[in-house]
Amino acid sequence: MNRLVVAALVALTAAIPARAALDVGDPAPDFTTEAARAGTVFRYSLAEALRKGPVVLYFFPAAYSEGCSIEAHQFAEAMPEFEALGATVVGVSADDIDTLTKFSVQACQSRFPVASDASQAVMKSFDAVMRTRPEYANRISYVIAPDGKIVFHYLSLNPTRHVDRMLAALRSWAAARK
User: Fold this and answer.
1) Closest CA to 66 of 137, 141, 113, 7
2) What's phi and psi for 27, nearest 5 deg?
3) What does the alpha-carbon distance between residue 18 and residue 128 come to, in Å, rounded to a whole number?
4) 42 forms bridges with which residues in the sheet?
5) Is the CB of residue 12 less than 8 Å from the CB of residue 133?
6) Is the CB of residue 91 less than 8 Å from the CB of residue 114?
7) Which one in 7, 31, 42, 78 has a CA-CA gap of 20 to 30 Å to 89?
8) How many domains does one find in the chain?
9) What is the spatial distance between Cα 82 and Cα 76, in angstroms, rounded to a whole number?
């Protein structure tokens, strides 16, 4: 059933043009929320994560849906590349923390955290609410520099493109800093 709902969302949203509210150079809204990594719940703070380096923040519609599981698996597999670029990754959805605690172990392979935004405060601040189904996050990814500025954003319901786009943006950002 969950797969059918997400498939319908993809079909409905594909025809609607969308734009990220935050553009390159804009400050990323700070947030703190519950997250899970490797089955352990903790408080995730964007500001704290940015002290360690750039952050890839990606929003996804629903844990355990086919596309979201594919995307999480791809981010997990690419973690060595993100780490080599000094970046951390965090996924955000409106799922409850209990669901994301399990998802962090299974789909994310315990390699990066996923954060719960049941109130949708983070989703709204990043213009990541799906317009046709506002109870879900849209599939949008951001690269945020350590100074808190948006370096890159990418919006596509295709779950297989985000990892490559985020890595390319990080490489480009790193090269420009040299």
Assistant:
1) 7
2) -75, 135
3) 10
4) 35
5) yes
6) yes
7) 7
8) 1
9) 10
CA angle, residues 67, 24, 29, in degrees to nearest 5: 75
Question: Two tokens at 54?
Answer: 């750039």
CA distance 10 to 15: 9
CA distances from 10 to 57, 138, 139, 148 (A): 20, 10, 10, 30
What whole-number distance in Å separates Cα of residue 178 and Cα of residue 174?
Answer: 7
- The pLDDT of 75-92, averaged and rounded, is 98
Mean pLDDT of 67-82: 97
Pick the closest to residue 162 from 60, 36, 49 (CA basis): 60
CATH of the domain at 159: 3.40.30.10
**Could you tell me the strand order of the sheet in which 140-144 lies?**
40-45, 32-37, 114-116, 88-93, 55-59, 140-144, 150-155
* Per-residue pLDDT, 178: 82
pTM of the full predicted structure?
0.88
CA-based nearest residue to 113, from 32, 44, 12, 25: 44
Residue 128's domain comprises 2-177
**What angle, rounded to 10 degrees, do the helices at 162-177 and 66-77 form?**
40
